[in-house]
Every structure is written in C-alpha cells, then in structure tokens.
Amino acid sequence: MKIDSPNIIGGYSTWISLGIQPTYTSSTSITFTGVDFTPYFPTGTKIKFTQTTVKYFYVLSATYGTNTVLTLTGGSNYSVANAAITNFNYGHGVAYEFPEWFNWTPTIVGFSSVPDSGIYKFNLVGKLVCLMIEQPNDGTSDATSFSISLPITASSSGRWVTPTQFRNNSATSVAAGFGQISPNGTVCNFYTGWSGAGWTASGGKRISNCTLVYGI
After folding, report:
1. Which strands make up the sheet holding 16-17, listed edge to edge?
2. Domain segments of the chain: what residues?
3. Consecutive sets of 10 residues in the chain, 216 residues long: mean pLDDT of each?
C-alpha cells in the first residue's frame, strides 16, 4: 500500500504528526506496517516519540518493501526499546527541543590505556555529519597508529581531512596534526603531521581538539 498524501498535522513546534504509530523493529529501527512513507524521511530527518520518556533520533535510511523501515541513530543517548511507541513526530530543519548534539561511545585504538573523560559528540545535517572530539587527558600509547571509531559510516565517495591539536610522547605539539576518514570509513585515523607521520608507541598521547565534517 502506498500513501501519496497522508493526513499530516503540523503545529507551531515545527514537529509533524503522521497520525500513525510505528512499531519496534530493533534498538536502531522502527517499522510502519503496510505503507510507503519513504518520501517523508530523507537522511537527516529528525524523529521524536515516546516510550515512557521522550526520545530523539536522526533517520539514517528509509526503505520500503511491504513495510516502511526507518533506520535511526540516537548515538549513545537514545535507543528504541521493545515496547509500544506513542506520540510519533518528525521534523525537517529546526525542530523544537531536538538535541543540538548526540554523544557516541567510540572504540579508540593505539593505546594500552585510552584517554579518560573524553568528549565525543556529533550532529547530522542532511547527509553531513559534524564531529566534535576533545580528550582532556593523555592515554598511554602502545602503537604508532591512532584511530577513533565513527558514530555513522562514511559515504563511499569522498575523503575527509581536518587539522588537529594533539599531544605525542607526553608533549604538546606546536604544529598541527590531522585526522582522515576514507571512503566507506568506520574510523577516523589520526597522524602527527601532514606527511602522514605516525605516533610514538610509548608515553602519553591524545587529540586535544578536533572538529570534522564528513559525508554519509
């Protein structure tokens, strides 16, 4: 069944209600049974619904076979519970009370002891992800490499780089390093110089500050 013009009700909050509630599929997906709602949910659409408390998500993809399945991310802040969903709404652009940032819990490689108290946040504008990474404390290096896993897999087309402030071998670098995400990348690899120089496999190291935008 394809719905060409559902009865969509909006309000001053900029949230839009379909008047139909989806059901749980997994911790990162929900389903509208028997209808095609894919035109209303491009990547980056904002979602909110209630499962005891209000939850917020971005839409990563919308697919239709006999049902519409939305794949979502709420970072480490929100996940879909195996429970009834009520008060489903979606929005494009500015959406009232939608979180400015989501947290994610990355896998960090290149350490015997990873930097503690790190800040890892992201948001999504259409198909562009903006990351904010801050590591206020050194971790203990045991490798010449350094990578941080991404909250969302990168696009198959493109390569993304950004300058970074960093510490290596327990010393703060005056020169900038850089981070790089490859096509279809699931991690950001970090280097101590634009030539792709590696890290000291001992002592303290960290990314003091990094902001990076990449496509999905």
Report:
1. 9-10, 16-17, 86-91, 46-51, 53-64, 68-73, 29-32, 23-26
2. 9-91, 102-215
3. 46 81 98 97 98 98 98 98 98 94 98 98 97 98 98 96 97 97 98 95 98 97
pTM of the model: 0.91
Token look-up 């960093």 returns 166
Q: How many CA atoms lie within 13 A of 118 on its CB side?
A: 25
Using only C-alpha atoms, what is the Rg of the chain? 20
Second-level CATH architecture of 102-215 = Sandwich (2.60)
In 3-state terms the chain splits into helix, strand, coil percentages (rounded to 5) of: 0, 50, 50
